[in-house]
Q: What sequence folds into this?
């Protein structure tokens, strides 16, 4: 077996890549810091938040109060916006210098773009879209990552035995961000990545960032699937009345009925609302992992034997097009 | 139609995946049992192929299909040729088995290098069985090429570059990309075309499918399959969701609506 660029005996420290848009740290990065703190304590290793950017000092200061032992800030004007070649070069330089044991990234578009390339450059293993992570009790420097999506209600535990760093990505919403206080002695360290000679094969000519839909933060979700037959109208009306966000199953997204930012489940978002009202979703495991942490699940599906009812608190085996209109009327009258 | 006679050359990486709802895991061997599952071409890969064929209509040149997998993939590659691709390469060797992303991307990169001159390699944004989207960036790294992930629009630009729009968190960005480049294409960005019946007979019988072994592409034994894969399945676990009440509400739609309205208001009350 070919080796990674440094070995397990040299590796120490839990690193979290802190993604940001220049204004604020990404939610998933804060979630990973909370989980990273727990893993670092188990391993008896320090927790480092790793930021790349330009003039990101205030973001680094903010991250410093999130329970880390240190923040490592790589500053360069070329790092103002994310581009693969430059970010990958800067990240690889820092990783090879400090040799962390773990490197965790959010499974966002840019996080996945970076992780996939960096893992190959470092010749190491990458576990994508983990739904849980823990350090192995008998060997606390080894990360055990859980991934679902294998069907049949089974999750696989993935380990990267010899290659370092142990890399993993996690989707937004899987872990909770803790409001941890600043750790005494927490330190901000800066470095200047040497980016001369790094090819710049991709140039950003325009960016258009709008208001972001974030269903992972919603307290109330109204979710539609195949059974809504392409029409989110009733669901939107209902959602508007109760201040809910719209969620969707993979089928609804694949059919092009709604954007992927609304997708709930294994390949979408893991949500934790107080209430999820699920309409016309059959309820495969790939979907239900996305609402497993909901406090209350209400499901409407015409088919009384649909698996979604195994994952629901309140079950309505009726035509959703017959139930939703009077429900909307009730909610409107009682406003 | 078969020779790579120069011109703009796009390679589309295509994966054959089991229908997700038909895959089971063997708890003893901890492996996916695909035997009982029917297969299909990974849906976003067809969007990538469609994008390649649209580019071919603009730029000319040719489109090759590249896949790694067992011999039964071949009919799916021929399907891609009946849609408009010119030739296909199948990397097939027992020693490729058990590959994680590192070994998979290495193997595909060796395949692309063996094919020779190329301008663009397109992949679907993610596979419906793995859904990790980590192959395109890894492939780009092995090939030392530019990479763009989550592309939804692409057009030729000046100086051998492409103008590409990609999705980012909360929006999109437009990029000028130097070739050669590996680009992952978002699912549903276009409508894959129907089979071209004029090509069908040729595609099914005469179209060139080249099968290459590990030795053919000069792959290093310690970088492919199980030996080339740093990650390993350490165990499996039954995923237990929380216990739910599973209480059915009965009655007319109006009665149920009243009960639901009451429930929703109480449950979400502290909103």
A:
């Amino acid at each position: 077996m070919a080796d990674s660029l440094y070995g397990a005996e040299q590796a120490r420290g839990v690193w979290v890549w802190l993604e940001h848009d220049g204004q604020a740290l990404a939610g998933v990065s804060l979630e990973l810091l909370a989980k990273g703190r727990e893993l670092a304590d188990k391993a008896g290793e320090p927790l480092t938040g790793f930021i790349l950017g330009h003039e990101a000092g205030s973001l680094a200061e903010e991250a410093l109060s999130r329970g880390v032992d240190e923040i490592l800030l790589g500053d360069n004007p070329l790092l103002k916006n994310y581009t693969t070649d430059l970010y990958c070069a800067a990240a690889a330089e820092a990783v090879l210098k400090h040799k962390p044991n773990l490197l965790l990234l959010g499974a966002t578009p840019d996080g996945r773009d970076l992780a996939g390339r960096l893992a190959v450059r470092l010749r190491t293993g990458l576990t994508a879209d983990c739904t849980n992570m823990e350090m192995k009790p008998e060997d606390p420097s080894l990360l055990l990552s859980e991934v679902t999506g294998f069907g049949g209600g089974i999750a696989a535990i993935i380990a990267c035995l010899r290659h370092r760093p142990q890399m993993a990505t996690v989707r937004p919403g899987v872990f909770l961000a803790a409001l941890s206080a600043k750790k005494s002695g927490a330190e901000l360290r800066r470095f200047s990545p040497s980016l001369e000679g790094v090819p710049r094969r991709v140039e950003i000519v325009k960016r258009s960032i709008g208001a972001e839909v974030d269903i992972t933060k919603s307290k109330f979700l109204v979710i539609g699937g195949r059974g809504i037959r392409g029409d989110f109208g009733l669901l939107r009306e209902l959602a508007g009345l109760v201040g809910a966000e719209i969620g969707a199953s993979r089928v609804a997204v694949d059919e092009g009925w709604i954007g992927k930012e609304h997708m709930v489940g294994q390949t979408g978002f893991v949500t934790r609302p107080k209430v999820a009202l699920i309409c016309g979703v059959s309820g495969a495991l790939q979907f239900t992992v996305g609402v497993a942490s909901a406090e209350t699940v209400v499901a409407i599906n015409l088919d009384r034997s649909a698996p979604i009812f195994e994952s629901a608190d309140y079950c309505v085996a009726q035509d959703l097009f017959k139930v939703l209109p009077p429900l909307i009327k009730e909610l409107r009258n009682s406003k | 139609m078969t020779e790579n006679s120069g011109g703009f050359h796009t390679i589309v990486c295509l994966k054959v995946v089991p229908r997700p709802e038909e895959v089971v895991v063997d708890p003893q061997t901890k492996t996916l049992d695909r035997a009982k599952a029917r297969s299909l071409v990974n849906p976003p890969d067809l969007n990538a192929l469609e994008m390649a064929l649209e580019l071919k209509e603009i730029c000319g040149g040719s489109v090759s299909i590249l896949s790694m997998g067992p011999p039964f993939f071949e009919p799916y590659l021929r399907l891609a040729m009946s849609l408009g691709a010119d030739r296909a390469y199948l990397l097939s060797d027992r020693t490729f088995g058990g590959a994680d992303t590192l070994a998979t991307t290495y193997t595909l990169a060796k395949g692309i290098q063996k094919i020779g001159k190329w301008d663009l390699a397109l992949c679907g944004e993610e596979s419906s069985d793995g859904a990790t989207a980590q192959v395109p960036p890894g492939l780009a790294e092995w090939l030392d090429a530019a990479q763009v992930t989550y592309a939804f629009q692409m057009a030729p630009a000046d100086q051998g570059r492409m103008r590409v729009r990609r999705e980012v968190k909360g929006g999109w960005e437009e990029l000028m990309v130097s070739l050669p480049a590996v680009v992952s294409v978002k699912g549903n960005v276009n409508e894959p075309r129907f089979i071209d019946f004029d090509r069908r007979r040729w595609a099914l019988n005469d179209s060139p499918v080249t099968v290459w072994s590990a030795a053919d592409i000069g792959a290093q034994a310690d970088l492919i399959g199980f030996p080339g894969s740093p990650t390993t399945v350490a165990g499996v676990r039954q995923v237990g969701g929380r216990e739910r009440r599973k209480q059915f509400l009965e009655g007319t739609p109006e009665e149920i609506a009243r009960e639901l309205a009451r429930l929703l208001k109480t449950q979400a009350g502290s909103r």
User: Anything to note?
Assistant: Residues 43-59 of chain B form the longest helix (17 residues). DSSP finds six helices and 15 strands in chain B.
